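Question:
When you can, review this sequence-structure pair and walk me through the tokens.
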Amino acid sequence: MSNIKNMTTLWKPFTPNREFNKNPRIFTSSDGMYYTSDKNENVLDAVSGLWCCNLGNNYKSIVSALKDQSEKMYYSPAFQVAHPLEYELANELISIAPKHIKHVFFANSGSEAVESALKMALAYQKAIGQGSRTLVIGRESAYHGVNFGGISVGGLVNNKRQYNNLIKTFHMPCILDIDKNAFTKGMPKNGAIKAEALLALINTHGAENIAAVIVEPVAGSAGVHIPPVGYLNRISQICKANGILLIFDEVITGFGRLGTPFAADKFGVEPDMITCAKGLTNGASPMGAVLASSQVYEGIINNSKTPIEFFHGYTYSGHPLSCAAGIATIKAYKEEKFFEKVASMEEFWQEELHSLKDCANVIDIRNLGLVGAVQLSSNTKGPGIRGNDIYLECFKNNLLVRATGDIIALSPAYIVSKDEIKQIVSILRDAINKVA
């Protein structure tokens, strides 16, 4: 193990710290599809870090961009002053965004992007004379980051238990339905009817009181919930008919994870705002963004009665190093045709993943694009024990996966080879069958 004198000085996020400190897992370097541990073992990364290193680790052009920019200027004030890379990255984003998206607001993470989008939704409704619209609707089992707005609209109870919600929200039903859709390849055919729950909430609380609906097109942190055919299109129709803004949280699905630049493209939906982060800089530097339609931007900017139209922002919004990493990342996506590669790998990935169907305790397998999940039944010790044991068994065999309760989530980098996909599935198969 690395020469670490006192483990408890570090408070790790989303980690059982007491247990982790007894047997920490330490990475010391990375390259491509692999991390190197402090035991000098190469660990195959099947989750792109935390869904963010879409091009793998230490992508050369991104490393070069960071080095070059750090020598020129590594910080510029975010307020009242701008620098050229902010504009360049904003235009790069607009070049791959859905055509109706015209404006970019920078934050530093997915959580901050969601917080910014929620504020925009409330500010927009008030600016256009719809100030009674203060409610936001989320979805059960949704994850929208860890700031107060995000946990309020989110639907994961463990993220809320220790705190009080900041904003009043209501939630649509979770889209996962294993009874009807287990082992579906791609989008489930059953379940679009769940979108009608939004109409029920509107009929209960009044459209005139609802500012926005926020959904993950594909729910990631809850364990890869794939939307049923037609579900997102119906949500969009209902929002448009009732003057409700639609926010797509694409922190995970943005930048090619489904084989298109954004999930909005994949599903043929035009959300009013898209939140993104993770793959924006390939994990090389913290950054998030809200991509907004002209309707939202102009509604706030053109109706403002104060010089500063939107009282919101962060010290590190549009940070020069993050902008440099973002520009290099998007150029790599375009020039190396990575979105197209994901689309071409989808079927192979799907078939390999579904080959785990007959493994012990597997009750569902889900996939879309280059993302997937294997769900297991809980064992008698309680929920999440089996999933965590499989995670540890995989790590012991030099494979990094993501355990969410009893769900093993997978999202390999776009540089993954077919042989590496087979290796991921093989190690995971052995781990599932070994763990009781």
Q: What stands out?
A: The first strand starts at residue 27 and ends at 31. The chain is about 35% helix and 15% strand.
